[in-house]
């Protein structure tokens, strides 16, 4: 499998060209995204396989583990290929119970950027997403202080590009009055279509949208509908969900995660499934 055979082609994040099919490193950490992986060598193998298959977009965060996934990425891939771009997130820490308490005060953000640089073995981070909201999803509120802190670090040469994660449309608009953003990373899938208007607006503005939890939060009825379409196509539900996302809009970038090289290949192959107009119409009713 070569670079050109990855489903979806490429997208440009500022001056960074990435494959629309990327890889999310969250699952490389231990249970509940805490501690080291059960299979250390297997985790390294997945990262190396992703790059060998042509993926040029890896999504991570120093909060995963914490620090575990970034250290694995460095061990597996450093020195990094020139074509590889690593996207990270700041704005949340981990507590001893596995929670994700916010850490968006200026000092916490500066410390998190420094730790990401150190653990990834980089002098500059390609793209940093500011994580907002909480475990329940986006929450209203100004992003100005936190985002301005990241803009300052960008101006100091530690960050190339900025984005938002778990953000409301109003927060996206506010951030863009402060500095350009190149992506928004929110929960979105067939069953959770709350960002439909935002995706279309961002596409018009050349800004990427990166959905997480492509199969998260489906009701039993919605799952049954997806499974019915998948069965008719002779495909797995995950394959159909990923393919639908790629066909939903050209600015959608995928970051499905896995700790298995076999599953990684299956995800890539599944996302390349071509859905017909009648398939798309039936799937569109899943989230309505």
TrEMBL record:
Name by which UniProt lists this protein: Aldo/keto reductase family oxidoreductase
What GO terms are given for molecular function?
A: oxidoreductase activity
For this record, an example GO cellular component is: cytoplasm
Q: Which CDD domains match?
A: AKR_AKR13B1 (cd19088)
NCBIfam families from the UniProt entry: PRK10376.1 (NF007695)
UniProt KW Oxidoreductase keyword: yes
Q: Which residues cross the membrane?
A: none
| Alphabetical keyword list | Oxidoreductase
Query: What InterPro entries is this protein classified in?
Result: AKR (IPR020471), Aldo-Keto_reductase (IPR050791), NAD(P)_OxRdtase_dom_sf (IPR036812), NADP_OxRdtase_dom (IPR023210)
What organism does the record attribute this protein to?
Micromonospora carbonacea
* NADP-dependent oxidoreductase domain mapped to chain residues: 22-286
